[in-house]
TrEMBL record, chain A:
Belongs to the amidase family. GatA subfamily. It is an enzyme of class 6 (ligase). Pfam families: Amidase (PF01425). PANTHER family: GLUTAMYL-TRNA(GLN) AMIDOTRANSFERASE SUBUNIT A, MITOCHONDRIAL, TRANSAMIDASE. This is Glutamyl-tRNA(Gln) amidotransferase subunit A, mitochondrial. Gene3D superfamilies: Amidase signature (AS) domain (3.90.1300.10).
UniProtKB/TrEMBL annotation, chain B:
Residues 401-489 form the Asn/Gln amidotransferase domain. It catalyses: L-glutamyl-tRNA(Gln) + L-glutamine + ATP + H2O = L-glutaminyl-tRNA(Gln) + L-glutamate + ADP + phosphate + H(+). It comes from the Eukaryota. PANTHER family: GLUTAMYL-TRNA GLN AMIDOTRANSFERASE SUBUNIT B MITOCHONDRIAL AND PROKARYOTIC PET112-RELATED, GLUTAMYL-TRNA(GLN) AMIDOTRANSFERASE SUBUNIT B, MITOCHONDRIAL. Belongs to the GatB/GatE family. GatB subfamily. This is Glutamyl-tRNA(Gln) amidotransferase subunit B, mitochondrial. Pfam families: GatB_N (PF02934), GatB_Yqey (PF02637). It is found in: Mitochondrion. Allows the formation of correctly charged Gln-tRNA(Gln) through the transamidation of misacylated Glu-tRNA(Gln) in the mitochondria. The reaction takes place in the presence of glutamine and ATP through an activated gamma-phospho-Glu-tRNA(Gln). It comes from Catharus ustulatus (Russet-backed thrush). The gene is GATB. One of its GO terms (molecular function) is ATP binding. GO terms for cellular component: glutamyl-tRNA(Gln) amidotransferase complex; mitochondrion. InterPro entries: Asn/Gln-tRNA_amidoTrfase_suB/E, Asn/Gln-tRNA_Trfase_suB/E_cat, Asn/Gln_amidotransferase, Asn/Gln_tRNA_amidoTrase-B-like, GatB, Gln_synth/guanido_kin_cat_dom. Keywords: ATP-binding, Ligase, Mitochondrion, Nucleotide-binding, Protein biosynthesis.
């Protein structure tokens, strides 16, 4: 039961095969036994059970609030949740209890979803490993899967596990791990440079970054306002469509959301891709791309070709400037967005009281980690009067060029772009921390970042297991607001590749239900 | 040996000069034709030693930056109420306190107020304007930045015409124009209350996020009186439009003055910014003081530094303000959470657009009320009163209406009515610090009295006495007063009728007063 999809479990709830409370309890038990993953910062057991109880009442009355009623979900800890700690994995907000719900959280609750807890991340979502938060790194559930254990060179067992565990990617690593380890049926992440798609790829789940402006950011603690999008993490593409339908649309509290109403959609069961033109951007053949992923990418292209789709190589010439450009724009907005954390109204406040200024300084030194402080420093440098034109304005122009590249490609008749999501499969934590956050982010965001620059929708679809038994995903990038087309293609692809299900001892122990998602052959 | 520093009294063309005697007249040799910029800026007698450049004239340059609080129910970017003197921190939304994750939502009313003000000040309204963040750390600025319009403000290139009198004579009025560089929408900050005794600062965020219009005036003025007259006219315009209540004492209108002096033909001098000016009278004083100070300083071989100074109203002088850590770099950047502000006019208005969602400049233009200058012209034209009287009428809220109401109800010529209102009624009200709306004598009653006078049923002396008595018999409430005066007038009328002029009305009235009260 726990390992089924959201739509499947919703059907089970509807048919009474399981009650919301039972489901919630099972999830909570699994969260406990997978605590070592460090996926959750806060588990809201009490309120979750209460919400489940309410849902149960509604279901009994035959008046469920919809498909999400009673479905356990998790939310990244950079979304505000009323009455529940919202920390951003930072000392600055440790213990901070927000008085309001983010619009997306409110929408989920209004539709009866059961909030299990808040998931781990890099501090203020700044990172690509989910290793740089004050609550410690998130461990990739696949590190503990039968698939990985079998393939990783067997040494002495117990120490090995401690040494060999791989990162989730980030910054929404907690949400990706939570969905991947079956502790919830869907989770919210956020995506600024790839923070939803990257961990989704490493954890073998679907990660959707919708078009900028399609989902409200109100209540999402910002990283880069002009690129942040709430992300959706699910086990399959259909579930992502369900979540999208329940979250998208205008929000009067976010002036950057679209004015038009959003019509939720269902994806066709037998999608047809034969009339589509799939673009393969050559620049995504980036230095450092593993040969494994390269070959998967080209096999994927062949799949489309064989299905009758037109597959064309395209060029996005400015993509290679995306990372440096992002560095300037991101740090500048970070410097600005973080200015509010001064210890006065909320959050951490230092005991230093010599003067207001010294209190500010000490508060911010104690409250932020090196990564955050480093970005604030460089961002303020880029915004200085004498630097503004040289860096910020230039970066904005480059951003426009990057967006124009996409416009030209889509204008030429290409419907969807197919690219890798990450350069390689997930690396062991011990290896990952050999390099600093900045270097890591620059490398890891390279394939995902441009979509944020252009505001385009993009999705990671788990594709196959690597030689080491770890998930690898591919990314589809669509036209603005053409989520339906994007997800349709993603669903078709998902069907073709039959990505294997993670074999996780803990989950199997907790899950005595019927498992419907059986896989035989996998795509590799 | 002391010399008196004085402003050239006439034909000064905005040129100040160090002089050894008071009020010397410098013939019309200034850069401006005599009379045109003639301003009788009152000289403030300042003491100074005779310098080397004793007769080199100085041209003072005054520019103003004005913050007008927008009169609206809610704040610029949040739904919090706007109210003066509410209990501390009672009008603070999550956004105003900058709780993480909150976003600004632009208040339509504030945009309309700015458009209205821009139109009234002959500005070009930008159909696309942008918002920016201006960063600085201060306890009453919770977000660490203010949202303002630095790059493209909502209105630019306007002008404001104002009049002032020469030599303090109401009969000699000149009209001048100051250019408006721009009007930008921005957020107000909160208030910090420093408790030095307990070395703590208390922060009140009620004002944080209230909508402001910042009006930047070009340095087209040359003395305190010009600045004061310009601000007074602006205040009247804002009040007429209803875009701001513009009460300086309540901080709804805040004026900072940029002041510099230079010799003719030379580039502008280093300017100082004078802040903390909370009345129009103090504005004139502060500017004049600062001009004098700079002239003295330079005359003594000193230099002017580009600093911020505060006006000390008790001492009547400007003093350097505690410097906030030297020069600030505000690190401006575009506000990413607000799309560009798009305005429409009749031509550009898309046909299928919901009217609730768009702001139509032409629609607002058509509905602009008569501005003070137009009202004055109409009063002069319609009633034949003197232009200077129209200024006095407009200067008081409700006075033009009072005047028109009296005129409507009496046979007396408006020219005569105005005398009664300005000389008798207004001077009394001023003496007792009453507004026109608080007047114990209503327009109706004054009209009655003037009718009696016009019909020669009472003498002018008697009428004056009745009015004086009515005003001074000012009882506890206005209502009571009006009742009493109504009674009084009835009685006078009655008596007049009864005795048919055989008895001096004044005497009767006196008797009645003695008997009745």
């Amino acid at each position: 039961m726990l390992r089924s999809s959201l739509r499947q479990v919703s059907a089970a709830l509807k048919e009474g095969r399981v009650t919301p409370t039972e489901l919630c309890q099972r999830c909570l038990a699994l969260i406990k036994s997978t605590k070592f993953l460090n996926a959750y910062i806060t588990v809201t057991e009490e309120t979750a059970l209460k919400q489940a109880e309410e849902s149960e009442k509604r279901r009994k009355r035959g008046q469920p609030l919809g498909i999400l009623d009673g479905i356990p979900i998790a939310v990244k800890d950079n979304f505000n949740t009323a009455g529940i700690e919202t920390t951003c994995a930072s000392n600055m907000l440790k213990g901070y209890i927000s008085p309001y719900n983010a619009t997306v959280v409110q929408k989920l609750l209004d539709q009866g979803a059961v909030l299990l807890g808040k998931t781990n991340l890099d501090e203020f979502a700044m990172g690509s490993g989910s290793t740089d938060g004050v609550f410690g790194p998130v461990r990739n559930p696949w590190s503990y899967s039968k698939q990985y254990k079998e393939k990783s060179v067997p040494k002495s067992h117990s120490e090995d596990e401690e040494y060999n565990w791989v990162i989730t990617g980030g910054s929404s690593g907690g949400s990706a791990a939570a969905v991947s380890s079956f502790t919830c049926f869907a989770a919210l992440g956020s995506d600024t440079g790839g923070s939803t798609r990257n961990p989704a790829a490493h954890c073998g789940v679907v990660g959707l970054k919708p078009t900028y402006g399609l989902i409200s950011r109100h209540g999402l603690i910002p990283l880069v306002n002009s690129m942040d999008v709430p992300g959706i993490l699910t086990r399959c593409v259909d579930d992502a469509a369900v979540l999208l339908g329940s979250l998208a649309g205008h929000d009067p509290k976010d002036s950057t959301t679209i004015q038009d109403d959003f019509k939720p959609f269902e994806l066709p069961d037998l999608p047809d891709v034969s009339k589509l033109s799939i673009g393969i951007p050559k620049e995504y053949h980036a230095p450092g791309l593993s040969s494994e992923i390269l070959s998967l990418w080209s096999k994927a292209a062949d799949l489309f070709k064989n299905a009758g789709a037109k597959v064309v190589e395209v060029s996005l010439p400015h993509t290679r400037y995306s990372i440096v450009c992002y560095h300037v724009l991101c740090t500048a907005e970070v410097a600005s967005n973080m200015a509010r954390f001064d210890g006065l109204e909320y959050g951490h406040r230092s005991d230093v009281k010599d003067s207001t200024e010294s209190m500010y300084a000490a508060t911010r030194r104690e409250g932020f980690n090196d990564v955050v402080r480093g970005r604030i420093l460089s961002g303020n440098y880029f915004l200085l009067k004498q630097n503004y034109e040289k860096y910020f304005v230039k970066a904005q122009k480059v951003r426009r060029l990057i967006a124009n590249d996409f416009g030209k490609v889509f204008g030429s008749g290409v419907d969807i772009l197919l690219t890798p999501t990450t350069l390689s499969d997930a690396v062991p934590y011990t290896e990952f921390i050999q390099e600093d956050n900045r270097t890591r982010s620059a490398q890891d965001d390279i394939l995902t970042q441009a979509a944020n620059m252009a505001g385009l929708p993009a999705i990671n679809v788990p594709t196959a297991l690597s030689e080491r038994g770890l998930p690898v995903g591919l990314q589809f990038i669509g036209r603005s607001f053409q989520e339906k087309q994007l997800l349709t293609v993603a669903k078709w692809f998902e069907k073709q590749v039959q990505f294997p299900v993670i074999q996780l001892e803990e989950a199997e122990r907790h899950d005595n239900g019927v498992f419907q998602h059986q896989k035989s052959a996998s795509f590799s | 040996m002391a010399a008196v520093l004085a402003m050239v009294a006439r034909g000064c063309g905005g040129v100040w000069r160090r002089l050894r005697q008071r009020c010397a007249v410098r013939p019309g040799s200034g850069p401006f034709p005599r009379g045109e910029r003639a301003v009788a800026c009152n000289a403030r007698g300042g003491m100074m030693s005779a310098g080397k450049s004793g007769l080199t004239p100085w041209i003072p340059v005054v520019g103003l930056e004005i913050h007008a609080q927008i009169s609206s129910n809610s704040k610029l970017f949040s739904g919090s109420q706007v109210q003066f003197a509410a209990p501390p921190n009672s009008l603070v939304s999550f956004f105003d306190a900058s709780l993480p994750g909150t976003l600004p939502v632009l208040n339509r009313r504030c945009v309309e107020a700015a458009v209205m003000t821009g139109l009234a000040l002959n500005c070009h309204i930008n159909k696309k304007s942008l918002f920016d963040r201006k960063h600085y750390f201060y306890a009453d600025l919770p977000a660490g930045y203010q949202i303002t319009q630095q790059r493209v403000p909502i209105a630019v290139n306007g002008s404001l015409s104002y009049s002032l009198c020469i030599d303090n004579k109401m009969s000699q009025m000149v009209t001048k124009t100051v250019r408006i560089k721009q009007i930008q929408l921005e957020q107000d900050s909160g208030k910090s209350l420093h408790d030095d005794a307990r070395s703590q600062t208390l922060v009140d965020l009620n004002r944080a996020g209230v909508g402001l219009m910042e009006l930047v005036m070009e340095p087209d003025m040359c003395c305190g009186e010009e600045a004061a007259a310009a601000v007074r006219e602006l205040q009247l315009i804002l009040q007429t439009l209803g875009s701001s209540q513009a009460v300086m004492a309540e901080g709804q209108l805040r004026v900072d003055a940029n002041v510099s002096v230079h010799h003719p033909g030379e580039p502008y001098g280093v300017r100082t910014e004078v802040k903390n000016i909370n009345s129009i009278r103090f504005l004139a004083k502060a500017v004049d003081y600062e001009i004098q100070r700079q002239i003295e300083e330079l005359g003594n071989g000193g230099t002017i530094s580009n600093e911020t100074r505060a006006f000390d109203s008790k001492l009547g002088c400007t003093v350097p303000m505690r410097d906030k850590e030297g020069k600030q770099d505000y690190r401006f950047m575009p506000e990413p959470n607000l799309p560009p502000l798009i305005l429409y006019d009749a031509k550009s208005l898309p046909a299928n657009m919901n009217h609730q969602q768009v702001i139509n400049i032409d629609w607002i233009r058509e509905r602009l009320p008569d501005l003070p200058s137009v009202k004055r012209e109409k009063l002069v034209e319609q009633y034949g009163i003197l232009p200077e009287h129209s200024f006095t009428l407009l200067n008081e809220d409700g006075l033009p209406e009072f005047f028109e109401n009296v005129v409507k109800q009496t046979q007396m010529k408006p020219k005569k009515v105005i005398g009664w209102i300005l000389n008798d009624l207004l001077s009394y009200l001023k003496q007792h610090s009453l507004t026109v709306k608080e007047s114990p004598v209503s327009s109706f009653l004054l009209a009655d009295l003037l009718n009696l006078l016009e019909k020669k049923e009472i003498s002018s002396t008697a009428a004056k006495q009745v009015l004086a008595t009515s005003l001074s018999a000012f009882p506890h409430t206005c209502k009571q007063a009006r009742d009493l005066i109504a009674l009084l007038l009835c009685y006078v009328e009655m008596l007049v009728t009864k005795w048919d002029g055989t008895e001096d009305a004044a005497v009767t009235e006196k008797n009645w007063c003695l008997q009745g009260f």
